[in-house]
Input
Amino acid sequence: MSMKHIVFSAMLAVALPAFGQAKPEPAKPEAKAAEAKAAAKPAMARKVSPKRHEDARQCLERPTNTEIIKCAEEYL
Output
């Protein structure tokens, strides 16, 4: 096998997976309208917590998952 064959085989091995990728389908007008409506609605505003920049690891010492979650929500 010559050097040209080796280089050509390596190039094919790299290039062929790119041709096998599926092209994304264009979005339907109904989907675009739904996305526009979702984007137009304002997201729920979160209150800025004074604990936001504090460490919440102490919540992990709670005995149950529910208590851990309730404790950690104060830091969001």
